[in-house]
Design brief:
The structure is a single chain. This protein has two helices and five strands, in the order βββαβαβ. With 104 residues, it is of the alpha+beta class. Strands 1, 2, 3, 4 and 5 form a five-stranded mixed beta sheet that branches. The chain is globular and about 35 Å long.
């Protein structure tokens, strides 16, 4: 787990957990793409040589960044939503990586 903390508390976070042959990064919830990149880079910096998966929504805009870090694009999940797209308790937080394809 990694987080960006400001004077108001947790501003952004990213999780990592065991999954199949390796680990999956997600969810990554931040206010902007720069925060998402920083959290993902921090987590991946300690995972060289390991199998890592990260499922990103199509509109996350992170594919080129992840490819630069050595992750290959092998498919794309479809994030489905019913109702409000806002994250409860945050007016401007956004999901940049899913917890998993199955969980969203």
């Amino acid at each position: 787990m990694a987080a960006i903390i400001n004077e108001d508390g947790i501003a952004a976070f990213a999780a990592v957990r065991a999954f199949g042959r390796g680990e999956v990064v997600g969810p990554v919830v931040t206010q902007d793409r720069d925060q998402a990149r920083a959290l993902i880079a921090f987590i991946l910096s300690g995972m060289q040589g390991r199998f890592v998966r990260i499922d990103i929504p199509e509109d996350a805009g992170l594919s080129p960044f992840l490819e630069e870090l050595g992750l290959a694009h092998v498919g794309g999940p479809i994030a489905m939503l019913r109702g409000e797209s806002n994250i409860p308790g945050s007016a401007n937080a956004r999901i940049f990586a899913l917890a998993s394809q199955a969980l969203g």
